[in-house]
Amino acid sequence: MNAWIGGSLVLFFALCACGLVLCAITRGRYPMRALVGLGTICSALIMIAAAIALVGGHTFNASLWRLDGFGSLSIRLDMLSAIFLFAAGLIYLPASVFVKNLIESRYEGKYPLSRYGVMHFALMASIVLILTAGDAPLFLISWECMSILCYLLVNYERRRNGDGRAAYIMLAMSEAGFLAVVVAFAIAARMAPDWSFASLATATAHLSNRAIWGIFILGLFGFGVKAGLVPVNFWLPRCYTATPAVFIPVLAGVTLNLGFYGILRLNADIAPPHRVGPGLLALFVGSVTALVGILYATTESDMKTMLAHSSIENAGIIVAGIGASLVFHVSGYGLAAAIALTAALYHMINHSVYKTLLFQGAGEIEAATGTRDMDSLGGLARLLPALSVVFLVGCLSIAAIPPFNGFVSEWLTLQSLLRSASLVSPAVKILFAVCGAALALTAALAVTCFVKVYAMSFLGIRRGEWKLRAPKRIKRPHFALVYLASACFLLGIFPTYVIPLLNRAVGPLAGASATASLVPSFFTATPQNQQLPAAFLQDFHNIGAQVGGSVLPGRGMVVLVRGGEQNPVIFAMSTFYGFLALALFVIVTWLIVTRLTRRRQMVRNELWAGGIPRLLPEMSYTATGFSNPVRVVFQAIFRPDIVEDTRKTVAVHFRTAILRRREEEHLVDRLFFHPVGNAISWFARLLARMHHGKLNAYVAYTLVFLLVLILLFRLT
Amino acid sequence: MSFWFWRGLQKGVHSTSYPRNPELAAGVTPGRPVATQFSSAQDAALAAQVCPVGAITTQGNSARVNLELCIHCQRCHFGNVPLMNWRSDYEWTTIPATKHKYEPLPQAYKRSLHIIVVDAGDCGACLHEVKQLNNPFYNMHRLGLFFTATPRTADVLLVVGPVTENMRVPLLKSYEAMPSPKRVLAVGACAVSGGIFGQSFVSAGGVSSILPVDLDIPGDPPPPLAILHGLLAVTGRKEPIDHEATAERGA
Amino acid sequence: MVATPSPLAARKKVQIEEIAGGVRDRFGPNVLLSPGQGGVTLSISLLEPTTLPPISKMLFWEMGCSFGGIIAEEIQGNWRLSYLFLSSGCGWTEVLVEAPSTTSAFPSISAEVHAADWHEREIEDLFGLRFEGHPRLGDFVLHDQTWPEGVAPHRKLQRKTMDPHRDRLRHRPNPEWRPLLVVQDPGAFAMPVGPVYEGGLGQSVHFLLETVGEDVVRSVPRLFYNFRAVEKIAEGQPVSRALLLAERFAATSSFAHSLAFCFAVERMSGTQVPVRAQNLRILLCELERLRHHAGAITGICESTALSVAASQAAIIEERLLRASCQFSGHRYLFGLNTPGGLRRDFSAESCGELLRAIDRAAAELHTLEDGLYLTSSFLDRLEDVGIVDPEKARDLNFVGPVGRASGQAGDLRRDCPYTGYETYQFRVPQALEGDGYARLRVLFQEAYQSAQLIHQVAKRLEPETISVHCEPPAHGLAFGWAEAPIGGALHWLRLDGSGLVERYRIITASFNNWLGFRVAVEDFAFQDFPIILASFGLSATECDR
Lengths: 716, 251, 545
Known about the structure:
The structure holds three protein chains of three kinds. Chain A is mainly α.
């Protein structure tokens, strides 16, 4: 077992190095081929390694080398790492394949990728190192490499996209977060013998409450930079919009998860809190993030920026789940903690899959039409039928519509928040209720947002003046997109297989088994072997919970939480059976309809528009118009500035043009980024007064500083 | 809001029992001129001259009315000239001269008919009478007649007005947007024969020059009961009237 | 409910002498003042067309006149434009400009008198006469997507090549036509409504509601889908046939329009109508007004989906229609007016029956009104929605109940009494808010006033002849006016030397009010649009003629 894992990892690093070298030295189409080919194999390798680890259940350890002063750098692939590693591999595969599709559709294969390939492999290697690092120094070094490589990759098309300001903000925030994380690790390592995660975990058991709080806040917001939490996420929308389409799937699907990994590793594994406070903070921050994210996503009409805000929303949901799990764990409700943490991890995987799908779809749309503005798209379903189907799957998944994967994880998150009814303290319960309501509102707004996205881009008539490029190439469905869409579907209808795998990590962290609490064994239980109460089993067998038991492996297809005597079922759902029922419905309806309308003749005629000569594109709803009610209702948050509302008049009575431009400042910018930035600038300006260029003064500074130091040493 | 419910109940039922029984209330129809026998050919000629649209034709002592041209100016109803006889009826729907036979809609539409109205230059009276079909006195819903908002779900196209040039294209689009089987009803003297506006550079002089008309409902305006009769004729629940035949039977 | 008009909206009661004095003082050498003919009290002939804008501005704004309309004619090879102004002390002032027919352009007064906007556009479309300074000529009566450029159907020359009764121009729709959109906002779009909307039960009008999602930023209605060229068809016809046209072009106000037409003929021939006929004309006018207002109230209730109230109002209206039919032989009062009086008489029994029907209608309207004012969900849709404030109402010359609900106190029955109105007592209801609720209140109050006027008339009916013989002269020029239910209407008639119509001009209240309709719609949510439309109660067919 260990040999297989070790071998895969070694092979992985070797192939990464090969790929890096190949991309560096070859020209023409070879870098792209190396990237695609070797990238695919590498991602498959890490998926294999992670899968073996998860299925086997053993932790893989390996020592790399010793660094003086830091101890030995080691690799440790435990269950938590395995889940994140699997997710990373799951996304890297289509991301690598998609590069080929994108380059071919957009640039007809002529696009220099050598530099990109080098950085791509380096990034892949550093991400794997982050996820498998067994001690703090290796973790932090790889993290820093990852930040810098992300910055370089985001700036890859800087000359094409304009200035590199967005990437610079990302880099600055990454560094700030990194500093916070370093301090957090330093606090944790105060009483530890060395820097490895195992010893840190044992050492933090003795830390004071304040120290734990300190680690928690620094960790939450330090890693929250990468994860995209309010208020440190103002770099995310800018940066995602400026990122080239080749890199955005990795940025959105893989590096975002590193933030969650960091939070879980530091704040749930190494230094878990002793009180409910930190968990509540995470829950609250997560809910606020989710709400802010989806509000801006719903009212945004640039597709990439909208997806960036939606990533913020999903990050909020995940962190809220993590926070809830911490609270339940500290309060002693292991089952609820397990459910919450399962929901968070499940949502992390799901989000990677469908967000990557949507970003790749958006990249395809931009390659095909040349625009990302949903106000001017429309009518793409006829022109790009294959893309519209997979994009629809992505939209349905992210809007949490059964039977796709988004539904399962959102449902589990909301259900776990409902478990707060069993908590004792009323203040905590109120906070849970408020956050639960915020998350429910978020879910509803997410549906609005993605209905708008799909309808305004694909349905209706074309609103803008664009033409379809390279039509023949684009009509074929792309492997990467189909792969991701299938993943969305499979993760949706087979939650009862995913949950036991997630349980490997959830169990130790939450102290209870998620599988035992969520997946009753309807397939294997019989009245004889007493795995489930006989009456309960009979009721569920009567409604068909054992259907498929002879064909499918596993415990059952129903996700269910059992309560006490009065309340045998607290919640239950089965996307698998739901999908079967839905499919049956659709097929039967289709049969009935075709039978009934056999003799009917369908005549196509132009759209009825009230008798006007032509329905023009400017007469159809725009994306801005569709989301305007949301903007109006939440005006207090948006606080838009109508910058120009000049009504050009020839004479007072005749108006020939009414120009309206609305400018909004993002809530986080307004409340956090700009004040903090202004404060820092003010302080810097204050300090700048010292640098006036007079040499004598500088000499004086040195003298003063020396005197102060001598005084200090004398006094202490 | 519940008090409106009680108010409505208090008002009671006002619906006419037409088509089961004829409606005899006063004022439901302006009536129409019918064929008249005069005492002399001169009187008949004087009676005919009064009509501004030439709807009255004479043959010896008798004068006949082509109801499709009548604009209800009432000049043959009262005045100093020999007057035509008037009958207070309202079943005026006829088959247009260009058609030989009228085929009503299939059985399925008998008690469920959807109508779209197009105002193609109407004076306002015909459209107003059409709107009265919804009021509690005529209550078209009890007969299974409904107005729809879009021609896509309509079975009958009801046209009022002489079809102005500006409305020609919208009218054609409305007709083409309807699925078959469909029927076209020309309501009012203007729609049937152009009325007082006739044919001009802006007026087509009636719907029949633009669309194939299935039934005519003459009158200016035809009262709501006449329109109801026409709609029932579309479904086959009533028969269109042959004015020539009834004229022969005498006024 | 008579409110004191605010100083802003009130017009000074200015007498004709003041106007004449003021014009003479300021424009002395450029104008020629003379007493007018055919209903005009003062005629101001301009020697120089450039005086038009300043003199119009002075008459409209300083002298407080309301704008009647522009009548364009081609007389013996010359253009004759007559601008009518009504002073509040009752007197029609006419500003006359004449120019040879080779002139193709006149100065536009729309920048000063905004109410003249559509009059000038109509003349440009129908006569080909340009108005310099008007920014939006064209695509008005003759829609650009249907008619080619350069067709001026009302010109005399057209008679030979385009006999209105025989020829028809067939044009293919212009495939490249696009509407003119004004709002420039990245997310703005234009919602098209009509010309077939409300299931076709709305008269054919096309609206393009330009919006960014919630509020209508701009909307200008596109009318003249019902354009039947009544004015052109009447040319060369005898007066009796033109009377039929006057009755039928806007049949829901047919009595008022035929009345105004008969006045024009009676004024031309100097006929004095017998008193019984005058009183009965008042009775029938008010009957029509009562019935029309019941219909408008039905429309408002239907637009807010208050079905029971709409049904009850519809019952009132149908009863009035049946009463009209029983009384006069036609539900819409066709065929009653003739120059010189009425064409038939009415017995005392039928008057009595009519009075009973009127009383019943008034009582039911009272009950309905009380019920409506208790329904807050209904009032919420009308109050503060579709506001036309008094300044804008004055600026755009709103007339009729819509104008009176925005503080414009004008009513032709009171300001320029005709057919004996001056001998009767009645109030002209007014309101100042200019929202849908104010318009509703004005409609109810006017309906009650009509009912009590009918009672007054019925008491005064004396047995007498019902009409005198009125032979229209061989040639003449006159105009008549009447307060139709929607507002004041002007019928202007010129007969050529053989008793046939040479020029027939109709100016209706709907034409005036449709111009200003957009003011009420803009900056309100487009869900309120059908309600604002219903509360205005405008008739597209009356505007289109």
